[in-house]
Amino acid sequence: MKSRKYLKVYRQFLHTSLASELEYKTNILIDFITAILSLIGSIFLLSIFFQNDGGIGDWKFEEALIIQGIYTILNGITNTWFNPNLTEIVKHVREGTLDFVLLKPIDSQFFISLKKINPSGFLEIMLGFFLLIYCIKINQINLNLGFLTLCLITIICSISILYSLWFFISTTTIWFVKTWNATEVLRSFLYIGRFPLNSFSFSLRIFFSVFIPIAFLTTIPSEVFLGLSQLWKIFVEIIVAIVFLITSRKFWSFALKFYTSASS
Amino acid sequence: MQKNIIKVKNLSKSFDISSKEQGLKGTIKHFFKRKTKRIKVIKDISFEIKEGEIVGFLGANGAGKTTILKMLCGLIYPSEGSISVSGYLPFRRKENFLKNITLIMGQKQQLIWDLPPIESFYLNASIYDLDKFEAKRRIKKLSDMLEIDDELFIPVRKLSLGQRMKSELLAALIHEPNILFLDEPTLGLDINAQRNLRQFLKKYNKETNATICLTSHYMKDITSLCKRVICVHNGSISYDGKLNLLLKKLSPVKEILIICRSEEDANKLENSSFSVKNKTKNEITIIVENNSITSSLKNILNNFDIEDLYINEPPIDEIIGKILIKKEYGI
Amino acid sequence: MGSNLINRKIFTLLKVQYSNMLEYRVEIALWAISGIIPFFMLNIWTNNNLNESINITDIMLSRYFLCAFFVRQFSVVWVVFSFEEDSLMGKVSPYLIQPLNPFFRYFAQHIAEQITRFPFALIIALFFFIFNPDSIWIPSLGILFLSVISTFLSFLIQFLIQSIIACLCFWTEKASSIERLLFIPTLFLSGLLAPVSSFPEYVKTWIYLTPFPYLIDFPANLLSGNSINLSGGFSMQILWILILFPVFRIIWSAGTKKYTAMGS
Question: Each residue of C61-120: pLDDT tens digit?
Fold first, then answer.
């Protein structure tokens, strides 16, 4: 059965990747400290916004913290899966070993996206999770099954959109080899995800909803948490996620076609 | 009757390359508008390979051997013509096709750097749908053939080059493919490792009847492994046939190394009608056509005072080097 | 005579690197775009009238962020990543044999890229003025000159800090993690996301003892015409350079000693 094979292969990926990453324990520690500092810095910035009766959008400080929590979880997922595999594909293209990947009887997008894992990202995910739990407490949010399901759906959609954006950059390696630049652009734009959508002016709000869907990534799930969300927004997010996933796959096949007709 | 497992007909491949003028002005122009040229690197080639054959692709750098090999694997999409490998179209990269082939590239590795090779083997095994027992069995068989054992449990980065090469081979062969593509496999290896690789390939071919296509710069690879050689020059095939026939047809000369009694004698020989290859003090090497060896020898022995004499074939490198440089040689 | 030779070396290095830079036009454009965070931050500040909480008119705040963008564009440093990549690819050994400290090469690369970026930065500034016509102003020649110097000093400080971290590559595998860690305080404390004047008092007491405010806040305030301590700022910048340069020399010679002793 196909899915059994892919699950088996993924278990191997996990095993081999963790085994090699855990050789570098100090790295994991440094990355975790970086995640903590980044969170502290962003909360510090938020406090500056909220000082002297200031505020952003119509959000209270405690509510804005939820966005920070979701952002941290998403950032952790990025650092666990998306980033390390981006580095891998850059290495493959540069060293000419992408050919080995293409000759394996396994889906190349699966291989490229999931081969590596960076355990320090796990700590960041947990950090975001704890912040989220703390926020649920201080905002006195009621948890019930329907609510949790909605939250899960929106977060899965956010992860899919985020994955598609990162995989898009990974795919461009085939043309550009070096991707720091594109990665930096994506990171700068994603940083906006730390703040609620309506802290921005109207035109930027449109920009961040339509052109670069940062809004979907953090604001919509946060609104679900606060019970502020509307069902149509959730539907839109689901559709956006599906569209992004399909587009990322199509772009990858296109890139492979280019690679196989242009490389020598 | 061995059937043809690889069939190539009228195959061509063109690439678009961007060109740039020299100097700063050229760079600025290039910044605003890129010019591309279409270059045909493979021009209308055809050949067929039978199952179990070992075929060597010979050619200068840039002649197109690697491109041909990659087209046979399915890594490069042909521009014109047809390829069929084991009945499949390679560039479709169907799963059953991929399970039957393997590509080994010199100095490029697929093993995971920080882990022992055995981990990479099990990873490959799961990708190729082998269960654990089958994988274990094949690893044992191949490691016996390759004569490696404990090294499989040491991280790849700590292995010597020779051990790494053997591990790479194992990883590439764990799924028992019956067509092997090797691109410059002995690149960067020392003499021992090269010899080991050649012996292993010969053994493997004998035991499994696998078809082997390899490209190489090292003549020893081709001469010790391949009965058949395909010479590629500027994207076309200039020779396709038995290696020994090629060598015979191309070396209608022999070299005679003459050791004279004195330097004067050597100088006399140098100024005679023979074509001289090189000369040091009292030793001189001359080149003589095969059909005039006897008369030349008579001439030398009668007219010159010599101490010793050796008759040699010119080095194989030079013979094959001629193929790489000359365009036509009437074969 | 000696200085003539050095000048020629510098000029040739610059010319070669400039040629290199022009090859990567897309990359340059992307780098320029990735500096866009200050504008998004500005949007948050003005959209929520947060400038009132720190007693600055929103015009001055706009100019501050525009200047922060410029200062960042021309002082951003990435030498850690270049060095780490070169050492992974084994390019450092040949550099060490040449009678030129490889960091000069990186220095020239950075200057060359800044020159190439200048047109893109100007275009972005143009867009800024189109969207914010009230903020249009032209700084006086004197201020411009001083700001250029101050930005260059900020660049030097960051270059030295990153070079010191890059030298850690001689001892550890992943010096870039340390750089990512150090980037966090740079991001939050340098004035890129919020002017230092908006920070709470307890931060302002110690922040001027660190190099951070002199990286963006001081040059940006200088250029935008906000009131600042001119001599104090310049002396601190120079002081930090005087401290960091010998540290770099020491770590560099210790590193090369170790490198050549171990035999790469």
Answer: 888 998 998 898 888 888 888 887 787 777 777 777 777 788 888 888 888 888 877 888
Does C26 touch chain B if contact means CB atoms closer than 8 Å?
no
Q: Which of B232, B167, B176 is nearest to B204 (CA)?
A: B176
User: Is the CB of residue C23 less than 8 Å away from at least one CB of chain B?
Assistant: yes
CA distance C14 to chain B (A): 12
Q: Which of A37, A68, A202 to mutate against chain C (most C CBs within 10 Å)?
A: A37
Instruction: Give the CA angle between residues C59, C62, C63 to the nearest 5°.
Output: 90
Taking CA atoms, B73 is separated from A259, B67, B89, in Å, by 14, 10, 9
CB contact under 8 A, C43 and A181: no
Q: What is the pTM of this model?
A: 0.80
Measured CA to CA, the distance from residue A28 to residue A197 in angstroms comes to 32
Residue of A23, A185, A200 to mutate, testing the C interface (most C Cβ within 10 Å of its Cβ): A185
In a domain, C264, yes or no: no
3-state DSSP call for residue B105?
Answer: strand
For B144-194, write each residue's pLDDT tens digit. 999 898 889 998 988 988 899 999 999 999 999 999 999 989 888 888 888
Nearest alpha-carbon partner for C23 in B80, A240, B53, B18: B18
CB contact under 8 A, A260 and B105: no
Q: Which domain holds residue C200?
A: 2-258
Q: State the pLDDT at residue B322.
A: 65
Q: What is the pLDDT of residues C153-194, one digit of tens each?
A: 999 999 999 999 888 877 876 777 888 888 888 888 998 888
- B172 to chain A: closest CA residue: A100
> How far is residue C36's CA from residue B328's CA, in Å, rounded to a whole number?
62
How many Cβ pairs within 8 Å bridge chains A and B?
A: 81
Is pLDDT of C240 > 60?
yes
Strand partners, B48: B7
CA distance C116 to chain B (A): 11
Model confidence over A162-210: pLDDT tens digits? 999 999 988 988 887 777 777 878 888 888 888 888 888 888 888 888 8
CA distance A63 to A226: 8
Strands (E), B60-154: 80-85, 101-105
ipTM of the complex: 0.81
Residue B259 gets which letter from DSSP? Answer: E
For residue B219, pLDDT over 70 is answered with yes
**CA atoms of A4 and B214, how far apart (whole Å):** 36
**Alpha-carbon gap: A204 to the closest alpha carbon of chain C (Å):** 8
Quote the CA–CA distance of A176 and B188 in Å, as a whole number.
28
Share in percent of chain C as helix, strand, coil (round to 5): 80, 0, 20
DSSP β-bridge partners for residue B287: B255, B275
Distance from CA of C183 to the nearest CA of B (A): 29
Cβ atoms C165, C82 nearer than 8 A: no
Q: Number of folded domains in chain C?
A: 1
Q: Cβ contact (<8 Å) for C53 and A38?
A: no
The residues of chain A scoring below 50 in pLDDT are none
* DSSP letter (8 states) at residue B315: P
* Disruptive mutation site among B24, B33, B107 for chain C (greatest number of C CBs within 10 Å): B24
The structural domains of chain A, with segments of one domain joined by +, span 2-256
